[in-house]
Amino acid sequence: MHYLTHNPPPGHPLPASLERILWQPAHQDHSFLYTTIISSPSAHKGNTTDRPTVRLILSTVDGQSTTLATCTCTQFAWSPDGNSILYSTDTTYTILHLQKATSWNVPIEAGSIPYWSPDSQFLLLDGPHTLQLLSIAKQHKYTLLSDGKASKPPSGNFSANLSSSNALLQPVPNSVWAADSRHFLFLTHNRLQWQSHPLHPGKGLYTAAIDNDGHVQGAPTLVDNGNDSQAGWTYQDANTSFLY
User: Fold this and answer.
1) What CA–CA distances, in Å, run from 83 to 48, 120, 210, 213?
2) How many domains does the chain fold into?
């Protein structure tokens, strides 16, 4: 499938994390998702938390477009099944289900990296202080791993939180999920409390298992206790990833 256009979408250029055109995964109707800007941040003196207001637009190659959401978004991506959209606004993530026309707003730790399970039933949020699991069907959030410290809200102005259109950002290429969507891996870093209990034998790379409802099955399994900095289990579709 080739789709050619000679003009950028209205409102572009945008900040780098929003200037994307994402094809809908697992669907054959050739739809794509993108953003257009409605209003820019206010330039009033002392106002350092404004974000641009944008529209999330679903479009088809024959020119049919639908506005799905209006938000002060910072990033957006598809779910692997192409039925939901995840977008962020500062420390809140929203999961928008297209067919059901429902949404779920989830307060999250600043700096968390989202990883969709391949079956789109779960999200892992890997943050500086916590590792959280979201069950999409139950609309429930579990804190799996933590360092016992509270996350501070982001500070600074718009330009410090959203990179310019010239920034060289990339989607996260690897996923922490196994292909069965019931096992995942994690690096502890300094987060050594597993479900509010000390994690033994300490720092390292672990794997964990969940059931179909998202409940953890047994204790995590230590894979390596070396100084690992990055790990992945499967490859991730760029259409389902945020940019970093």
Assistant:
1) 35, 9, 23, 19
2) 1
